[in-house]
Design brief:
The protein has 56 residues and is mainly α. Helices cover 55% and strands 0% of the residues. The chain has 2 helices and no strands. The chain has helices at residues 7-30, 49-55. The radius of gyration is 26 Å and the shape is rod-shaped. The termini are far apart.
């Protein structure tokens, strides 16, 4: 039969689980897409071909 755990142990496990969850969320929030390197890094996306043809 399972023994009852002390309240202190339950609170400690819950606190550690909460810390692990917060750490995982912080790491996931900081893991974004890599920035482009090179001379064209600051340029935005190019216009689609259909838009360029319609403007002529």
């Amino acid at each position: 039969m399972l023994q009852r755990t002390r309240p202190t142990e339950r609170y400690a496990r819950g606190f550690i689980a909460a810390l692990a969850a917060v750490a995982a969320l912080v790491l996931a929030a900081n893991a974004g897409p890599a920035k482009a390197a090179g001379p064209d890094a600051d340029r935005g996306t190019t216009a689609p071909v259909e838009v360029e043809a319609a403007e002529r």
